[in-house]
Write a structure and sequence with these properties.
five-stranded mixed β-sheet; elongated
């Protein structure tokens, strides 16, 4: 079973960062949120199982999207 990789799209100063959860550095930084979300979706679509968490300017979660073969409901 593939482990879900989670990417956060969040504000970083005046920019927006795409960062894999628990990574030290951002995958990429953008001047606007639209481009950051687009890049996060590209990354997620190329993985077997991924999730993106899109945050608002204040850091709270706006929405989440899961990509790939998400086993929901989980077996068992």
């Amino acid at each position: 079973m593939n482990k879900r990789r989670i990417y956060d799209v969040s504000p970083k100063g005046k920019q927006w960062a795409v960062k894999e959860r628990d990574a030290d550095r951002a995958v990429a930084n953008f001047d606007n949120k639209v481009d950051a979300v687009k890049r996060a979706r590209e990354i997620a679509n190329n993985l077997p199982l991924a999730q993106i968490v899109i945050r608002k300017q204040d850091g709270t979660i706006q929405t989440e999207h899961t990509y790939g073969d998400d086993p929901f409901p989980p077996p068992g």
